[in-house]
Amino acid sequence: MFRLRADLVESIVAHARRDYPREACGQLLGLEGASPVRYVPMANADDPAVQAYSWRFDPTDQLKVHRQALTRGEVSLAVVHSHSRVPLRPMTDSGLPEAYPSPKDIEFMALQPDVHFVIVALKRRDDAEPEVRSFCFDETGEVVEDELRVE
């Protein structure tokens, strides 16, 4: 189970709405073994032509976030990004975006197998019910959904 404060979920969803239809991305930080205490929104550094269905951290920004976290005794507990209603996204049978890792997401997850992956799916910018889900690797190396408990 991945526990997340309601105010952090609100910050993540607000960031996804601001960046819509581009994919938003960021990191959840906190003490190792504990629940996240802060969300750090980051710029999508992927090619602007593909930002509607792809994301990437800028390595320099990622290093800054990592260094700031270290000074606070924090670690990255989760990588966050959004999916929006655009072509090439994981879709449900209804054709709407789904908060589920794409093959590219899974490749990125493999680089940090101990970190959760939180995905927000927005059907539109003002989506009143965004889907927010958490994923991780299980002991066999398979990607599984980890129950997200918002507190």
Structure in words:
- The protein is of the alpha/beta class and 151 residues long.
- The chain has a single domain (2-150), classed as Cytidine Deaminase, domain 2.
- Helix content is 24%, strand content 30%.
- It is built from 3 helices and 8 strands.
- It has helices at residues 6-19, 59-71, 103-111, and strands spanning 2-4, 25-30, 38-42, 75-84, 116-122, 131-137, 143-146, 148-150.
- The strands form 2 sheets. It has a 6-stranded mixed beta sheet with strand order 3-2-4-5-6-7.
- The mean pLDDT is 90.
- Residues 6-90 form the JAB domain.
- This is M67 family peptidase.
List keywords for this structure.
alpha/beta, Cytidine Deaminase, domain 2, 3 helices, 8 strands
Order of helices and strands: EHEEHEHEEEE
Mean pLDDT: 90
**Number of DSSP E strands:** 8
Which architecture name does CATH use? 3-Layer(aba) Sandwich
Low-confidence stretches: none
Task: Give the C-level CATH assignment.
Answer: Alpha Beta
Structural class: alpha/beta
Number of domains: 1
Shape assignment: globular
Number of helices: 3
Q: Could you tell me the radius of gyration in angstroms?
A: 14 Å
How can the largest sheet be summarized? 6 strands, mixed
Instruction: Work out the strand percent.
Output: 25-35%
Residue share in helix: 10-25%
By CATH, the topology is Cytidine Deaminase, domain 2
Strands of the largest sheet, in order across it? 3-2-4-5-6-7
Q: What's the N-to-C terminus distance?
A: 12 Å
> Could you state the CATH homologous superfamily?
Cytidine Deaminase, domain 2
